[in-house]
Amino acid sequence: MTVWEAIQKRFSVRQYQERPVESEKLDRVLEAARLAPSAGNRQEWRFVVVTDADMRSALVAAANGQRFVGEAAVVIAACAVGTDHVMPCGQLSYPIDVAIALEHIALQATEEGLGTCWIGAFNEDRVKELLSIPESVRVVELMTLGYPAISGGAKDRLQQQEIVMYEGWRD
Amino acid sequence: MTVWEAIQKRFSVRQYQERPVESEKLDRVLEAARLAPSAGNRQEWRFVVVTDADMRSALVAAANGQRFVGEAAVVIAACAVGTDHVMPCGQLSYPIDVAIALEHIALQATEEGLGTCWIGAFNEDRVKELLSIPESVRVVELMTLGYPAISGGAKDRLQQQEIVMYEGWRD
User: Fold this and answer.
1) What is the pLDDT of residues B24-66, one digit of tens each?
2) Distance from CA of B80 to the nearest CA of A (A)
3) Fewer beta carbons below 10 Å: N end or C end of chain B?
4) Distance in Å, alpha carbon of A67 to nearest chain B alpha carbon
């Protein structure tokens, strides 16, 4: 699958088949994250991969009751270590670096015939407690991963001329 | 090019040919960003695309003197509007959403035979002044885009077992 096709095809999958994810596919998806760029090659990302059904069920409550979190074969807690580095532009490195790596997972998953969903609606303390994640580590996002039970529709997006400006800002 | 190949092939390109980027390629690259996912589909991203040579030269000084910023045919200022939204997990939406869209640009660019470099080393106020970007808007990252004048080497990364943990955190 080309990058272009994967970008068109990726959508937020909130219904999954029970079918487990093959370990070769999971490995490639995680390898895609590993190769991502990061600020000064810091690679602050850490991924806690959850396949245990009881733990996935427990994560549902920590993720504001979103039931599909328990239905997907895999839930990935995308974490960051060393979270105090600020780039000269004023942005913290870690949310950006983790986001880049996690979108590599989403696009590689699409190529593998898998679906994903970014999840920012969760209680970080609850997730950390469940997964024994140390206090100093941040859980930036959760992502479900599994075989989709639905197909994606058209994407509801702003038009290109609403988000792109040439040579300088214009209102 | 497959997603897998693009992820292997992408590297931080800091030397560019003088050759301009065709408008169809630039359009597809920006379209890849437009289709990215964002928290609650907020799409806070805005992209200021700079091709003017004088402006690119001016951006060099704003980007800590990094000369390749003036050599790449295109510099994209990846901005965010509505920067106060915090997800239930405690993270600001905008750096993550902009990062996702910008990595779509990097991967689509790779497929188009183009190179990119993420740039966090810049003075945000200087960039905003140069590009007439309003005070309320954040410039999250700059990205150069153009035909590479060099090839990438092997990637220096942590091993998968150093960044991936199964079922819970382990030290």
Assistant:
1) 999 999 999 999 999 999 999 999 999 999 999 999 999 999 9
2) 10
3) C
4) 17
